Amino acid sequence: MLKIFTGSANPALAGGIARNLGVSLGHIQINRFPDGEIAVKIDDNIRGKDVFIIQPTCYPPNEHVMELLIVIDAMRRASAARITAVMPFYGYARQDRKDQPRVPITAKLVANLLVAAGTSRLLAMDFHAQQIQGFFDIPVDHLCATPVIVKYLREKSLADPVVVSPDPGGMKMAYQYSRLLNSGLAIVAKQRISPTEVESYNLVGNVKDKTCILVDDLITTGGTLCAAAKLLQAAGARNILAAVTHAVFIPAAYERLKQSAIQEFVVTDSVPLKMPPNTLPVHILSVADLFAEAIRRIHNNQSVSSLFNI
Length: 310
Ligand code: R5P
Known about the structure:
The chain is an alpha/beta fold. It folds into two domains: 2-144 and 289-308, Rossmann fold, CATH 3.40.50.2020; 146-285, 3-Layer(aba) Sandwich (Rossmann fold), CATH 3.40.50. It has eight helices and 14 strands. The strands form three sheets. The chain has a seven-stranded mixed beta sheet with strand order 10-9-8-11-12-13-14, sandwiched between helices. Helix 1 (11-21) crosses helix 8 (288-299) and helix 2 (61-77) packs parallel to helix 3. Bound molecules: ribose-5-phosphate. Residues 94, 128, 166-167, 169-170, 198, 216-224 line the site of ribose-5-phosphate. Ribose-5-phosphate (R5P) binds next to strand 11 and helix 6.
């Protein structure tokens, strides 16, 4: 039997997933002890059940990671038959390699912690780098927001679209979008100067008089998109849109992005958007149905990859 629980990171998305599945969210208490430690109690009997815990590790990431680990520990000790961590956004994913001496690989550390806590399998979406799947020796189902975002973009019937990757790392994702949208493809060369500053110094591809769709896995400071949009504008782009899976905006990003030439931000609800209303022209697409279908298939031992036939 299937049981769905939510942590405190994105209860709205979890509610949408549960509604689609026709089940109620499981009862769980997540509180704080007076000293700030996380206190968890699962109120439902989950002995022998196929249990899913929905928790993107978005802001504040440390709280949400720790909470997830503690919930999984409680589930294991409550004799759940199988525990699937459903992470619509996998935080710490950008720390996926030693790119300088004496730095950690925190994406791998989080993977180790999840498995040590008792995770049986992982369901996630648009990892920053697909190789993160290899950080786990348990089954990983990796969803893409592409079907949801492409459907919306197709409905807009954009004039002369070109998909643009704002950095070389996003090329594979951009290529996939461009094939599905039957559009041109361009790429921006980017250099990160600091966690908040980015320099985009070259554009490969023709964007003159075209509708540019910047695609990326996440927005945090907005530096990447602003720098890319500046180059596109200088190269004669007619319109610029951004299609980004995880809207992990930090508040300082709003002002910066407001000044950019980007006319619309298409994002998903993988993380809750805490932006004040009318701050930016953001269109939010729900991935609840996509996750619900994946959960249904995992529970029924059916193929998840066939979800991507679009
Ligand atoms: C980088 O490789 C990622 O795909 C994003 O482009 C980047 O992390 C976005 O961060 P920010 O909005 O701070 O530039």
